[in-house]
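Q: Fold this one first, please.
A: Sequence and structure below.
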Amino acid sequence: MTSPRQRFLDYVRRVPGARPVVSPFLPHAGVVTGALRRLGLPVDGDAIDREIRLSRALDYEPMFMCGCTELMFPWQVDEERTDEDWEVAVLPVAGEEWVRRVARSKGLYGDESGFPVRDAEDHRRLAAVCRSAGERMATMRAYFRAFRQRIGDDGVVVIAHPHVTWLAGQISQPNMIYHQLDLPELFTASMDAILEASYVVFAAAMAEGIDFMSESSYGLEMVSPAQFAAQDVPYTRLLADWTHARGGLFWYHNCGRTRPLIAAGHFDRLGADVIETIAPWPEGDNDLRESRLCLAPGICSKGNLSLALLRDGSIDQVITATRSMVRAVDGFAHIHSTADAVFDDTPADNFIAFVRTAREEAERT
């Protein structure tokens, strides 16, 4: 019998006879623990142990996500300068310290205080850190090697997104817009630097057996179709082409309002092997059947079940929605999953009903 990892990869690669894949998107620890208890199974071990145990019991193929941007930007907490109000982290760059201050009351990126890119000089620091990425290759490879060994063949591993057009999460959302307008050359230089650093991180990940390279973008909550086409599509395509040139698989995540982007063909131009999450209302704006018909047949889509419905609906509603999701993509390569990470307060019975129904319906179609 093939492993969950191999089943997942065979399905994405269209191996004849490959079994349909059911893979909930990153269910929170509370959901996994609750489902194990509901099934009368042990809840010992760490989060990975528990999800592997649950996936075996419910017969699904789990995916796990490892790090990315923290390997490009290895901020280190400075305990001497950290106090009860502020956590101070530093990153050596070009003979000086780049300093990040995070308000403890808000948490990392909880408000604008936690984003280190604030002005032109910070863009130059960001580019310098990216240029030094190759110096950390051994550390990166050790990290990915340990992660791959931890999962083994019990699931696939997807690298977290470098977020090239979001400047790797080092800039606030307001400044992401203002700097594109006020500092366009520096903003582009920062994106280019992150792209090059992404190749370094991807190379380390692929060398250690990470299954999918990836990228993500905002939906139409944050970008216009024109901006998406001019900025997100070309950078994502460069990452996808780099991955494919080295024999790898590429994963694209967008869990927002994407219906017009799909209909316009923008998602086809990303070059992704897997595209998620084709989110419906209220998380997104997609009708799964309609959007799937707009995607190129060679793309494996993933996702769609509403997180709100999964959390707040009855078991019968979850079963009905899951059946409709599976039937909507009949004849297409589609990984049956959720519209994003499963909410921590999702009832165990609802989660179990979703997974079991998805498996039964997928085997039937």
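Q: Good. Now the second chain.
A: Here it is, same layout.
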Amino acid sequence: MEATYSLKSSELNIDFINAIRKIFKNNEVEITISTTNNKKGEIEFLKAVSDVRLRKNIISFSVEDFKKNSKKIIAS
């Protein structure tokens, strides 16, 4: 199971921790905390759209290459 929470650091409290405990029960969890920067993501997305339109910085591969490389990634 995977969940993404987006909240202000001032909203972090024991209720939040208890909610995570309730949702994930006795499962091991991994918590990653990062700041959000929506403007940066938007700029990167628009650049990627522009690159596709200009046909630059595009990586292509066959289905066979995808399967082969996927297996390598999963194995590591």
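Q: Anything worth noting on the second one?
A: The two ends are 21 Å apart (CA to CA).
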